[in-house]
Amino acid sequence: MTCGHKLGWYDLVPLFSWVFLGGKCRYCKSKISKQYPLVEAINGFGYVLIFWLTGFSLSSICYCLAFSIFLVISVIDFRTQEIPFGLNVCLFIIAVIRLAFNFNDWLDCLIGMVAVSGFMYLCLIIGRAIKGIDAFGGGDIKMMFATGLLIGWKANILAFLLGCIFGAVIHSIRMKVSKDTDHVLAFGPYLCMGLVIAMLFGNAIISWYFGIMNISI
Q1: Judgement on whether residues 68 and 137 belong to the same structural domain of the protein
Q2: The total number of structural domains that make up the chain
Q3: pTM for this predicted structure
Q4: Are residues 44 and 16 in the same domain?
Q5: In terms of Cα–Cα distance, which of 171, 200, 196 is closest to 70?
Q6: Per residue in 48-73, is it b (16+ CB within 10 Å) or e — as a string?
């Protein structure tokens, strides 16, 4: 970003290039942010965890790709309070590919597209009509639309509830620590945290919850 030099493949090997270059650009010696190796390490760990928990299959590959997109969305939304439309399109394409080879889940997934995103869009309309504010961002709604197709309505609702909890707790702590009450809430990272948990552990959590409530599903 400093010198504008075109990087070679050997400058872009995840983790290793940053370590071997001592965290500096090969060409102008400017420092490279620790964000890059951190994101790469989290992404690699996520892939290992997904394959370990779900085995090697088309679904697990789709989950890995979705995990990478969640990671990118989290970083971008945290910094800019925006979720690029193209990333949501990628999530939707991944969901379509997974559903094409797991067609037994088609009804749950189709309901999933609107179960959460529809509720969020309704809140958006009501918020604008009553107070002139956006209850949710358009990027958040589109993301939950795509992920509903990917993981189904029950897991998507769980992800949304977890995202709300994470957002409320973590954002409150951030405001308390920084003593800045004007912090803008970037909801995307918290939704992505909920989505990862729901994607990997959703069925177990839902079964446990309905089990203790003595509700059959």
Answers
A1: yes
A2: 2
A3: 0.88
A4: no
A5: 196
A6: eebeeeeeeeebbbbbbbbbbbbbbb
Domain span at 2: 1-32
Secondary structure (H, E, C), the chain: CCCCCCCCHHHCCCCHHHHHCCCECCCCCCECCCHHHHHHHHHHHHHHHHHHHHCCCHHHHHHHHHHHHHHHHHHHHHHHCCCCHHHHHHHHHHHHHHHHCCHHHHHHHHHHHHHCHHHHHHHHHHHHHHCCCCCCCHHHHHHHHHHHHHHCHHHHHHHHHHHHHHHHHHHHHHHHHHCCCCCCCCCHHHHHHHHHHHHHHHHHHHHHHHHHCCCCC
pLDDT in tens, 144-165: 999 999 999 999 999 999 999 9
